[in-house]
Amino acid sequence: MINYELLCKQVVEIAKNVGQFIKVEALNFNASKIEYKGLNDMVSYVDKSAEAQIIKQLSQLLPNAGFIAEEGTSDKIGEVYNWIIDPLDGTTNFIHGIPTYAVSIALKENDELVIGVIYEINLDECFYAWKGSDAFLNGRKIQVSDTPDLKSALIATGFPYYDFKRQTAYIDLFNDVMQKCHGLRRIGAASVDLAYTACGRFDAYFEYNLKPWDIAAGLLIVQQAGGHCFDFDGGNLPLTTCDVVATNAKVSTELNDIIKYHFK
Questions:
Q1: 244 CB-near residues (< 8 Å, 6+ apart)
Q2: pLDDT digits (tens, 9 = 90+) for 49-94
Q3: DSSP 8-state code for residue 228
Q4: Between vectors from CA 245 to CA 55 and to CA 113, what angle results, nearest 5°?
Q5: Is 155 left (phi over 0), alpha (psi -120 to 50) or beta?
Q6: Burial class of residue 263 in the structure, from the number of CB atoms within 10 Å of its CB (0-12 exposed, 13-18 middle, 19+ buried)
Q7: pLDDT digit string (tens) for 181-223?
Q8: Please, are residues 50 and 70 in contact by the beta-carbon 8 Å criterion?
């Protein structure tokens, strides 16, 4: 049996170590080092090197585990255990010198998330949880907010950057939510949005067309902090490309009703 707590704390140290590498590289980074994977989908040697470092260190912890990683550094698939990695979530922020980006690492056992770690580099904030645990921020227990309704809620979201087929409906959704909540924010890193929902800074978060590495760690942390995660239809979230809603549980119905109205 794996000791999830011990393993999670080891992953925390890996995330912090790689985060320090990213922080140092940010000091000398310039636009000539950008590559494009697709429309507005950027990557740099920092993403790739960070991912390689993470995979090397995680391989020492669980030699038989596979990897689902954004930059494709490893194509190894584990029979039971698979790490889900975003080495630098918020690459666009990083490239433009906006100091909100994070390392995100999750462990999936069969189809169940059992470890989630998000290290927000510039604030030196590490959010984490494991199966059966509370959720933590730098060793302190965190919980979702107790905001009772949407009109009092601060909501986070993300903007589409390459899949614009549903853009009109999404803008209509923004317009609706903005008139019914306390405020709408866009940070530019899904993992950070989920971490902030877990600790109560945001009361809810929604975004569409995300990948497993964007959300895996954050989903577990939100749930272990007492939150509620579901797709745009209000159903369970498969760890594939998906639409995601995460809330403090108290505003779930109100927010999901609005989302379903615009995304029938």
A1: 190, 205, 206, 207, 208, 210, 215, 219, 229, 230, 231, 237
A2: 899 999 999 999 999 999 998 766 677 888 999 999 999 999 889 9
A3: E
A4: 35
A5: beta
A6: middle
A7: 999 999 999 999 999 999 999 999 999 889 999 999 999 999 9
A8: no
Whole-number Å distance between alpha carbons of 155 and 69: 28
Q: Which amino acid is at 86?
A: D
Structure tokens that stand for 111 in this block: 């189809």
Closest CA to 195 of 94, 121, 114: 121
Interatomic CA distance for residues 102 and 90, integer angstroms: 7
In this structure, of 18-22, 101-105, 170-174, the range with the lowest mean pLDDT score is 170-174
For residue 144, give the DSSP letter. Answer: -
Q: Alpha-carbon Rg of the chain, whole angstroms?
A: 17
Q: Tell me how far CA of residue 185 lies from CA of 2, 153, 165, 199, 257, in angstroms.
A: 38, 11, 22, 16, 20
Enter the DSSP assignment of 34.
E
* Cβ-based burial of 224 (10 A; exposed 0-12, middle 13-18, buried ≥19): buried
Q: Tell me which residue has tokens 């902030």.
A: 196
Cα dihedral across residues 108, 113, 115, 120: positive or negative: positive
DSSP string, 157-180: E---SS--TTHHHHHHHHHHHHHH
Rounded to whole angstroms, the Cα distance separating 264 from 251 reads 20
